[in-house]
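Recall the central idea of this unit: under ordinary conditions, the amino acid sequence of a chain determines the structure it adopts. In this exercise we apply that idea directly, starting from the sequence alone.
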Amino acid sequence: MIEEFDAALVKELRTLNDVDVFVSRRPDDSYSGKSYLVFLGNSALPGAPKRHRPINSVRDASVYHPFGVFIATTSAQARNAIVSAVRRRVIGFQFNGSGEVEETGEQNAYGETDSVIKPARYTAYLTFQVLLDRII
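Accordingly, the structure predicted from this sequence is:
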């Protein structure tokens, strides 16, 4: 279920204009000069037992799936525009057997990085989560 959800969300992110989308990492030889984002999937976290546990088995319990999106651009203005576009695409996104994606903000960060990753030195990291039903 997690893999299918991630694939559907990455497909949605790839509809962003003028942004390269990668999963897990950006290969060293892949920089096109455009802004890019990296989808960072995660595993599953159990929900509260009384709210997310079915009566038949814990194997069928709903789980939280946290994930992040790292954004890198050449200007603060472009970064802010992509952050807004990502939020519009991701917050509320639903897939068969999932709840709506919500932004957790637990590890959100913005910054101007050092010159090592020039020219894409303006970055942001956004964190989200979704509740998934494992029996779907």
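Strands lie at 19-23, 35-40, 45-46, 62-73, 102-103, 109-112, 122-133.
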